[in-house]
Each structure stands twice: as structure tokens, then as C-alpha cells.
Amino acid sequence: MTTVSVIMPTYQAADHVRRSVRSILTQTLVDLELIVGDDGSTDDTRSLLDSFDDARIVRSHSEDNMGSLRTRNRLLGLARGEFIAFQDADDESAAHRLEALVAAFRANPELGVIGSNCDYVDTAGRYLSRSDKPLTHDSIVAVARSRNPFVFPTLMVRRSVVERVGTFREYFWDLGNYDLDWTLRLIELTRSANLPDSLVRFQLKWGSNSLTIRNPRKLVADRFALFLADERRERGTDSLDEGRWARVEEFFRPLEAEVTREPSRVFRGLAGEFARRGAFDIATRATLAAIRAEPLRVSNYGAGAYVLKHLLLKKLGRAR
């Protein structure tokens, strides 16, 4: 059995995919397979993927754009490794990433999922900041009650645990945050950890995420995943598993009204989040999105002041 299967879906990633693939093929752990799947890109992504001559690459391309959830699920079905790791096509792994994670699994057989910290970088590869994720299982579970305790592209999971939790749930196909739902279900089945080291360069960008979408349900998909986790803690199952669609609608209805009533709130929150990560260009765009949504709401300008404060503090820190 192959030691590690690395899952890498790609879409319109021609500017970055070559570096991302190389960062896996040059790992210090060589017993791996890289399972790549282009999701109907119209740029040169597919030709760049096909230009690599390495027997460890498994290709599974799609002519149509199926979305990252369905592509990940398809690639997961091809994985043969004892451990399964993830990487996005615009991220890069440290050369010892897979070796370090496998060593952690070997030393801690009770663990079923391990991640790490990451370095956040911009689209030009410039360092922005480092994540600060909880390290122990108990702290991961505590943080998971309010936000994602992992950086998803840093994760490695035992194959046996993946087989128990199943694939990413189809309901999240049009919502996003399917990775949060999946990881919350993982830590209910097995013990987990994050390594303190930064093992991935994680690119932050303004793209097809909650910064630019208008479907109110997408803007609260993270809260839906957390709600489902609360249900499972209370009852051992959740509304999706039970098909309780009226309960799902009951959850979304007030949140949709909240987003409609104050559409700038989500953008203000994202502005603060990206400012703390040092991604000031994205934070500024989020602030402007909040102002465009509600130009008369004073708190939107307060968000801009918050972003500016963090930018000045960072510049002052560099000056010292």
C-alpha cells in the first residue's frame, strides 16, 4: 500500500499549479501518489498537469466544471494510500511536510487526523502572517464550537478514518464550507492534533468565496456546519442525515433575513479576519464591499479604521 495519497483538485490554476505540484513531487517522503483532477479549466492548467512525467501522478480530469466538492469526492475514491493528505493547487508544501505528518501518526497511533500551522501568503508569494491553530485534541474540540480549528490544506487523515466519515456531503455543493462540515465530523470520530510548525504556504486571494457571492445561505454556511455539529452532540445525528428539511429551512430563515437586513455584517467580519492575517488588500476589498452594500452604516467605516490600524501597526513593527 502506498504510504500517502495527496488529493489536489484544480481549476483555473495555471499561474500556480506547477509550483504546487513540484512541492509534492519533491517531498522527502517519496512513497506517495499525487491524485490530480482538473475541473474543466479553460486556461493552461490541464496541459501543465499533463506535462509532468512522474509515475506517482494519477490524473482524473473532467471536461465539465463540477465544483471542488464533487472533484474532491471523485479523487478521494481513487486514493490508495494508508494516509490521505490534501493540497490546493495554489498552495505549496514544505519539503518535509508529509514525512513530518506520517512520523506524528506513527508516534501517536491514537490520532486519526493531523494538521499543522501555515504561512499565509499573497498571490505573489509574499509572506503575510502565520496561523495559530490549537494543537491538542481537547483544544481543537473547544475551538471547533465557534470556528474552524484546522487549515484544511494542511490536513492528513488515516484512510480508515476517511472510510468511516465518508465523503464531503453533497448538500454543501452550492453552499461552500464543505471542508468545515467534514472536519467537524472527523473530530467526532477520532482524536486529532495540529503540529506547531508551518508546513504549508497558504495563498490568500480575493476569489470565488464568501467575499464575492450574494447567496445569503453561502454567507452563513459556516454557521450551518457548526449548527449541525451542535445537533450531533445533542442527539447523535443531524438534520441532513435525517432528511429533516423543514428543520434546515427553520435554521436558514432567520439568518437569511439577518443578511438581507444587514448585508454588510459578513463583509465587516471578513475585513477584520483578513486584516489580522496581514492580507490588507483583501481586507480593504471586504471593507469596500461592506460600504457598497450599506453606505450609510457607520460601523462599516469603523471596519475601515480597524483595517488601517492593523496596517499601521504592522508597518511600525517593521520600522523597529
Question: Would you identify the CATH H-level superfamily of the largest domain?
Answer: Spore Coat Polysaccharide Biosynthesis Protein SpsA, Chain A
General shape: globular
Beta-strand fraction estimate: 15-25%
Average predicted local confidence, pLDDT: 91
Query: What is the gyration radius calculated from CA atoms?
Result: 20 Å
The assigned structural class equals alpha/beta
- The CATH architecture classification of the largest domain is Alpha-Beta Complex
The stretches of 5 or more residues where confidence is low (pLDDT under 50) are 208-212
Write down how many β-strands occur, each being a DSSP E stretch of 2 or more residues: 9
Helical content, roughly? Answer: 40-55%
Question: For the record, what CATH class of the largest domain applies?
Answer: Alpha Beta
- The CATH topology label of the largest domain is Spore Coat Polysaccharide Biosynthesis Protein SpsA, Chain A
Number of discrete domains: 2
Cα end-to-end separation: 52 Å
Element pattern in H and E: EHEHEHEEHEEHEHHEHHHHHHH
